[in-house]
Specification:
Structural class: alpha/beta
Order of helices and strands: EHEHEEEEEEHEHEHEEEEEEHEHH
Oligomer: single chain
Strand content: 25-35%
Shape: elongated
Helix content: 25-40%
Length: 301
Amino acid sequence: MIFDCIIVGGGPAGLNAALVLGRARRKAIIFDDKQPRNFITHASHGFITRDGISPKGFRNLAQLDIDNYPSIERKDETIVSITPTDSTCFTLKTTDGQTYTSKTVILATGLKETLPNINGISDYYGESLFSCPYCNGWELRDQPLVLISEKQDAGHMAKLIYQWSKDLIVCTNGTNNLPKADEQSLKNKGIKIQKDQIINLVGAKGQLEKLIFKSGIELNRNGGFVSTDPKQPNALAVELGCQLNEDGGVVVDQLGRTNIDGIYAAGDRAIVNPAKLIIAAAHGVRAAMGVNSDLTTACFQ
């Protein structure tokens, strides 16, 4: 069987793409390795009508919607390679050696987070330390917070967090990347900056209580934010020859098309920043529209 489209990735972008393709009567299959970027998050926010829903709950509801369309299949498997078979099709192989053929492919595998190398930080990430103030700032409002960031744009992040809490300390973890102008701007607003290296985080059951520094200083904090490094979860786009942007995302046009005919990308895989559930889902819609539009055009040639 030759599918109209194979969607690689079962997050919000892939799921919404599958829904739109199902409604367009396209024969498609969505592959999900069940390793979502937000698997550690208890609740997702900022998606109208679904504010506060758990990632698992969101996926379950999305899958129920998709199951209303018989032309869409779902597989809980991982795609390990994508190979052009001719000018019109691609062959995709799973970890167990199964192969599938499709006219088009949507890459929607999202991103993976890399945390700073700080002892114990993973115990608090997703519980009381987060990467996005738009996602979790409301829950941490008016509390004593920390921003852990080794990046030059820590000043911009701190200024955003200030909207939710004025009691904020920026920790650069032994680095000196913060521009002097940003440093002074933060200090003018009463935002403290701690440049010492963090040697440990202290708390219980994911709730941050204290940061301990190499200098011996200890700071009490209830939670906060951390700058992470997003990474592509696999080399599929690179192996296909897709063009990447400076953030490492796949370059796409307004309908999710990459520079490789028949290959589309959606969600965090293409956007990188800002990484929001609702934005990823919307990009899945656009990529599906691109697929349907291009297949329709090809049918009339």
